[in-house]
Amino acid sequence: MNRVYITNEQDKIAVSAALRGLVKRAIGAALKYENFSRSAELSVILTDNENIREYNSEYRSIDR
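and the corresponding structure tokens:
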């Protein structure tokens, strides 16, 4: 069984239960398409431009 954790770090778009369900279904479809048959844990962060720039700088050494 796959577990999907969704973290919302932005306030520009409302993150409803329907949107969370859509994200989980999209991940499930991608795993099925790739024939991924093992259990997995996935994390999804919904963020804004400011925060993604910080992530890029910290983890990718790209300041944009």
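(Above: one complete record from the training split.) The first helix runs from residue 17 to 33.
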